[in-house]
Design brief:
about 270 residues; alpha+beta; Fructose-1,6-Bisphosphatase, Chain A, domain 1; D-Maltodextrin-Binding Protein, domain 2; 14 strands; about 30% helix; about 25% strand
Length: about 270
């Protein structure tokens, strides 16, 4: 099984490096269009989406693919890649150098491997999280191939908690940490995996925003909590995930769920 994971990791490293190099040339230079859900898309998003799909088809022809810019139907495949070709398109179009390429690999509908590359920052995150899938191989979470772990600290005003643009109403009430807003769903949550932040929340992420980080965060020792009543995974064959949002909370350890969930739970009520 490790030989398979070696192939997967090498594929992700080489593919995101090549595509990231090209995308950096276009960052801040392209006109964006608005999609029906209000998010932005550029020709670079579409090009990267197509290039990644073609690379997956060439290297893993038996695997399914679900991407932000094309197919949103979860396929009847044992293995499936979920792709966000540019996570942080608004940052990308405005020349803000924080955006990434996200690749999540699902087995029987649940992420078991995640890879996120931020080209300008030269940061590549990856992680293996098998849960009860029965798979074996490498374990842990990594940043540029060095192991990373979530923080074991308790919340304080010297610790960071990351918000998204649609969760700032949280600050109407006292909050136990300093807050940051990154503008990139994957990086917002990956900073928890790296130990830089103690928690993070996303009010309206799509499946391609969270599939890769779901595995990485848990591999680093963190806890991923769905703020809806239903579990996010496993995904269901034939279901359209294009318009579904998955409000979620990420914390550095299980004990902090009871601290932060009451502070952010209003998000699901607000969005319903």
């Amino acid at each position: 099984m490790k030989e398979f994971w070696d192939r997967v990791l090498q594929f992700c490293q080489e593919t995101t490096q090549s595509i990231g190099d090209r995308l950096m040339l276009d960052a801040g230079k392209l006109q964006a269009e608005q999609k029906t859900d209000g998010s932005l898309v550029t020709q670079a998003d579409k090009w990267a989406d197509r290039a990644i799909r073609e690379a997956i088809a060439k290297n893993f022809p038996d695997h399914g693919v679900l991407t932000e810019e094309t197919t949103h139907i979860f396929p009847d495949k044992e293995w499936c890649w979920i792709v966000d070709p540019i996570d942080g398109t608004t940052n990308f179009t405005r020349g803000v150098p924080i955006w990434g390429i996200s690749l999540g690999l699902l087995y029987q509908g649940t992420p078991v491997f995640g890879f996120v590359y931020l080209p300008f920052l030269k940061q590549a995150f990856h992680g293996f999280w098998y849960g009860d899938s029965g798979l074996t191989g490498y374990t842990g979470a990594y940043l540029n191939n060095e192991p990373i772990f979530t923080s074991k600290d308790s919340p304080s005003k010297s610790h960071l908690f990351n918000l998204c643009a649609r969760s700032t109403a949280i600050l109407k009430n006292p909050f136990p940490c300093k807050v940051r807003m990154i503008g990139v769903a994957s990086y917002n949550l990956l900073l928890v995996a790296a130990g830089a932040a103690i928690g993070g929340v996303e009010a309206t992420p799509k499946i391609w925003d969270i599939a890769a980080v779901w595995a990485i965060i848990q591999a680093a020792g963190g806890t991923f909590v769905s703020l809806d009543s239903e579990s996010i995974f496993p995904l269901q064959v034939g279901e359209n995930y294009g318009n579904r949002s998955f409000p979620c909370l990420v914390v550095s350890r299980q004990e902090l769920v009871s601290v932060f969930k009451p502070l952010v739970k209003f998000i699901t009520t607000k969005m319903s």
